[in-house]
Amino acid sequence: MTEVHWVGAALTAARPQVVAALLRYFRDLDIAEEAFQEASLRALKTWPLNGSPRDPAAWLIFVGRNSALDELRRRSKQDALPEDDVISDSNSEDAETALIDRLDSSAYQDDVLRLLFVCSQPELPVTQQIAVALRIVSGLSVQEIARAFLVTEAAMAQRITRAKRAITESAVAFETPGPAERAERLTTVAAMIYLLFNEGYSASGGEAHVRIPLCEEAIRLARLLLRLFPAEAEIIGLTALLLLQHARAAARLDPNGDIVLLDDQNRSMWNRDLIAEGLVLVEKARRLGKPGPYQMQAEIAAVHSRTARAQDADWARIDEIYSVLEQLQPSPVVTLNRAVAVARVRGPAAALDMIAPLGESLAGYFHFHGVRGALLKDLGRTDEARVAFNQAVALARTAAEAAHIRMNLDSLSK
Amino acid sequence: MFYCILSYNLEAELEAWSREKAAAAMAKVEVVKSGLARQGRLGPVGRLMATTTAMTVRAGRGGEPLVLDGPLAQTKEQLVGFYIVDCNSLDDAIEVARGLVGNTGGLEVRPLVHFYPGIGLQ
After folding, report:
1. Domain CATH number, residue B102
2. Does A156 touch chain B (CB under 8 A)?
3. HEC states along A102-128?
4. Is residue A338 part of a domain?
5. Is residue B50 part of a domain?
6. ipTM for the assembly
7. CA-based nearest residue in chain A for residue B73
8. Count of CB contacts below 8 A, A vs B?
9. Beta pairing, strands B106-111 & B42-47
C-alpha cells in the first residue's frame, strides 16, 4: 500500500464537496475543476509528508480557491477581474477560518446538491448526464468512462465537452434554493443516480466487468446524498434499493457473464453486509410514512432479500407492494411486474386478465411477450403460448434472453 | 484497567477505498486483535454501519423523547467502530491505539468506569 494510495482515496472522497464549493465561488465548472486539480497536485506532494489535514475538504477548497484566484489575476492582464461579489477574496489571515466557518453542513448540503443537479439536467441525454457526473463529481477519467460505455476515448471526451457546454448555457441558480426547489433538485438528482446504477446493472456478457464499477459509483453518490439529507424518505429508499440490488451482483451473472434470473440465483452468493444495510434503510424509510416509488421498489427487493429459498417468497406481500407502486407511479411495466406476483398468488388466469389491457402499450416489449407466453403455457393454451414466445424471441436484446425463451418453446413441443 | 478505543474516520473516505486498501487495513487490524487475544486482553469489538443507517433518540420536552433520522452529532469524522481492551497502563492503551491507526482518521482512548461483559452474544 503506497502513500499515494491513501491520498487518492482522500481526494476522491473530498472531491464532490470541494468542486461544489469552488463552483459556488467561481460559478464556472471549468475553473472549479481546474482549481480542484491544482489543489490535488499540491495535496499529493504535501500530504504524504505532513499527514492528512484535519479537514481535507476545507484544505482543498482553500488551496484550490487561492490557486484559481492567482490564475485569474494572471489572465486579468488581458481581461478584467470578475466582480467582487462573485469572488470573495479576502487577504486577511482569518480567511481560512472564515472559509471553514462557511463550510458548515448546510452550505455543503446545497453546494453538493447543486453540483449533482447541474450534471442531471433532464434536457441532456441520459448517457451525457451520467458521463458528466462521473467525470465531474466522481472524478473518473475520460478513459475509464469511455471504457464503461464501450466507446472510444475521443468520442467520450466529445460527449462530455458537449454536455458541459449545455450545462454552462443553462442558467442554474446559485442562491440558496427554497424548500420546493430543493425537493425538485433532489428528485432530479435521484433519477440520475438511479440511471447511473442501471447502466451498470443491466450490463451482461463482456460488458459486465467494466460496468459493475458504475453500480458502486451510484451507491457512493446515493450515500453522499443521504448523509446530506438524512430524513428524505425517497433518498433513503433509493439507497436501500441500490444496496439490495447490488448485493446480488455476484449471483446475477453466470461464468459466461450472462444474466441469471432471480429465481435461479445461488442466494448464498448474495452479499449479506449490503443486504443488512439495505434492510435497515427500508425500515428507516417506512418510519417516515412518506411512501414513494424508490421505497416501494426497495420493499420488494427486501422481501426477496429476506427469503432464503426462491420458492418461499411472500408473493402476496409483493403483490400488495406493487399495488401501492401502481398508485404512486402508474405504468404498464409496473402492472406487468405485478401480474407476475398475481400469477403466484391467484393463478395464471387472473394474471392474464390483468395484462390483457397492456397489449398495445407493451407490444414492443420483450418481457411482456415472455410473461404472457409463460401464463398461456401454464393455462395449457400451447398454440397461443408459442406465438407469444416467438414474439419475445424476436424482441430479445441479448443472447441470454433469447436462450431463456427458447427453453420455454422447447418445453412446449414435448 | 479496561479501555474503550473508539475509532473515527471520514466515512466518505472509507467508501472511496479500493478493495486492496480495505483488505490491507483489515489485515493490519487483525494482527493487533489476534495479538491482544493471545494475551487474553481482547474484549468485544464492533464495526458500525454507516451513519446513514443511524437514528437518534433525544430527550424531548414533557418527557416525550424525540426520534430523529441520522447520527446524534454531525461531526467531520464519524465514529466507525470500537474495541474494548484490557491494559496495564494508559501508555499501554495508547500503544494499542498506535498499532490500530492508519493514514487517516484517529482513535480515542477512554478508560471504562464500569464494564459489564453482557451474556456473550454470538
Report:
1. 3.30.70.1060
2. no
3. HCCHHHHHHHHHHHHHHHCCCCCCHHH
4. no
5. yes
6. 0.92
7. A105
8. 71
9. unpaired
